[in-house]
Specification:
The complex is a heterodimer of chains A (370) and B (82). Chain A is 38% helix and 16% strand. Chain A is of the alpha/beta class and 370 residues long. Chain A folds into two domains: 15-263, 3-Layer(aba) Sandwich (Aspartate Aminotransferase, domain 2), CATH 3.40.640; 265-368, Aspartate Aminotransferase, domain 1 (Alpha-Beta Complex), CATH 3.90.1150. A seven-stranded mixed beta sheet of chain A has the order 2-8-7-6-5-3-4, sandwiched between helices. In chain A, strand 3, helix 4 (98-108) and strand 4 form a beta-alpha-beta unit. The mean pLDDT of chain A is 96. With 82 residues, chain B is an alpha+beta fold. Chain B contains two helices and five strands, in the order E-H-E-E-H-E-E. Chain B has helices at 8-20, 50-60; strands at 2-5, 25-29, 41-45, 66-73, 76-81. A five-stranded antiparallel beta sheet of chain B has the order 2-3-1-4-5, covered by helices on one side. In chain B, a hairpin with a 2-residue loop joins strand 4 (66-73) and strand 5 (76-81). Classes of the chains: A alpha/beta (370), B alpha+beta (82). Chains A and B meet through helix 2 of A and helix 1 and strand 2 of B.
């Protein structure tokens, strides 16, 4: 199997991640922040270590500001719903995933005003356009870092700087960029991560960084293992936002995943493979790269072929995993003019090889010619 | 000696930083008798490290709710607030 659907989730996972999860299930397994026995304390320590590791990845020395979630979508929901209230304006880009679009559209019925900054044909937002949309009611700008459709990269530092100069908060959707691009607090006041993509943790892990001083409403309420006598959620980070039992087993795996990313030079390899993928796919006849990818995510428009049919044939006839359709990002496809046709997407990961990419380009060419 | 804090996250943060200074401590559930508002967590450490614990907590922004000395009297554990 050639797996080129790493933008959906990376596969395979490093052995150290698998070993950490197995070890947790065999030898740890206590519920973190619940009780005081050895296994609970051990589990709590592992969760904390992961918080610390993720904080250091973005150059932050306040690990308690990292809130664990089950995925990026939950992290984005927490940030967006937690900060906005009736009458507030939110600016998003036209390249956003449904994780942002649906959340914001749902909030319109609560009196939130949604504004959409249109990206250009490369899938990139002009910071000046964002600036022109800011009013004194604008509370939040939410921006995707790397498009999951085109692999294009938004100028998020510039947009974040504009946001701050105008007293607006910036939320970064780092689902595709965490582990691939350098990210720090100059990219956002809140940053939503996927643990299971380029941070190489298991599915069911995600996180939200919230800059110290930002107050958010909770998304869920429940037990936190602290201040139990109170009927209200505690104010302290991260407990306020982590009601119920955490996915400690997954977080133990994510901890090893983040260390793997730092240790193995994942970013460098991702960039090298991405460049090679773009080169190889550019040479495929009857396939056209849409947008302006600069990392290992490439969306292809196929002349005379249905993208899902092609993905299915690549899977059945060539054992190649890709992703076709709208990628949960219909607004991005409308922006790019591909809403009717959809796109075929290939996305690389650390374990891919150049040989696999060459074989995929060859197989795609074969499918498109038959 | 015990330092009571808001959560296991705070306790673990303090523990990690103290370990960098060679100070051994452990995260424990706060004895029920010491909690006003339900479950909580504390850091247990040697009394001789109190000053550095306090200083480190201040540097990290970890709020210590109280310090307690642990004693055993008539086979009963008692806590004296400092």
């Amino acid at each position: 199997m050639i797996y080129l659907d790493n933008a959906a989730t990376t596969f395979p996972k490093p052995d150290c991640v698998i070993d950490a999860i197995t070890d947790f299930l065999k030898n740890c397994g206590g519920n973190p922040s619940r009780g005081g026995h050895y296994l609970s304390a051990l589990s709590g320590e592992k969760v904390f270590l992961c918080r610390e590791e993720l904080a250091s990845l973005i150059g932050v020395d306040t690990p308690e500001q990292i809130v664990f979630t089950k995925n990026t979508t939950e992290a984005l929901n927490l940030a967006i719903k937690g900060i906005l209230s009736r009458g507030d304006e939110v600016i998003i880009s036209s390249m956003e995933h449904n994780s942002v679009l649906r959340t914001c559209v749902d909030l319109e019925k609560e009196g939130i005003i949604l504004k959409i900054a249109r990206a250009d044909s490369r899938g990139i937002v002009n910071p000046d356009e964002v600036l022109s949309m800011i009013t004194n009611r604008t509370k939040l700008i939410c921006m995707i870092h790397i498009s999951n459709v085109t692999g294009s990269v938004n100028p998020v530092r510039e947009i974040c700087s504009i946001a701050r100069k105008n007293g607006v908060l910036m939320l970064l959707d780092a689902a595709q960029s965490g582990g691939v691009l350098d990210i720090d607090t100059s990219c956002g006041d809140m940053i939503a991560f996927a643990g299971h993509k380029a941070l190489y943790g298991p599915m069911g892990t995600g996180a939200l960084y919230v800059r110290k001083g930002i107050t958010l409403d909770t998304l869920t309420e429940g037990g936190t293992g602290s201040f139990s006598e109170s009927a209200l959620m505690p104010d302290s980070f991260p407990e306020r936002f982590e009601a119920g039992t955490l996915n400690a087993c997954g977080i133990a795996g994510l901890y090893e995943g983040i260390k793997f990313v730092k240790r193995e030079g994942v970013k460098e390899k991702e960039h090298e493979l991405g460049k090679f993928l773009i080169e190889q796919m550019s040479a495929v006849r009857r396939a056209k790269i849409i947008g302006s990818p600069s990392v290992g995510v490439v969306g292809l428009s196929l002349s005379g072929h249905d993208c899902v049919d092609v993905a299915t044939r690549l899977d059945r006839e060539h054992n190649i995993a890709s992703r076709a359709g709208l990628h949960c990002s219909p607004m991005a496809h409308r922006t790019l003019g591909t809403i009717t046709s959809g796109l075929l997407r290939f996305s690389t990961g650390f374990f891919n090889t150049k040989e696999e990419i060459t074989a995929t380009a060859y197989a795609l060419q074969k499918v498109l010619e038959n | 000696m015990l330092a009571t804090v808001a959560s296991s996250t705070s306790a673990n943060r303090l523990k990690r930083r103290l370990s960098e200074f060679g100070i051994t401590s452990s995260v424990i559930q706060t004895p029920h008798i010491l909690t006003k508002d339900g479950c909580g967590y504390s850091l247990r450490f040697d009394e001789s490290s109190r000053m550095i614990v306090e200083k480190t907590a201040t540097e990290l922004g970890v709020k210590i709710r109280a310090f307690y000395i642990e004693n055993t009297t008539d086979e009963k554990r008692v806590y004296e607030k400092m």
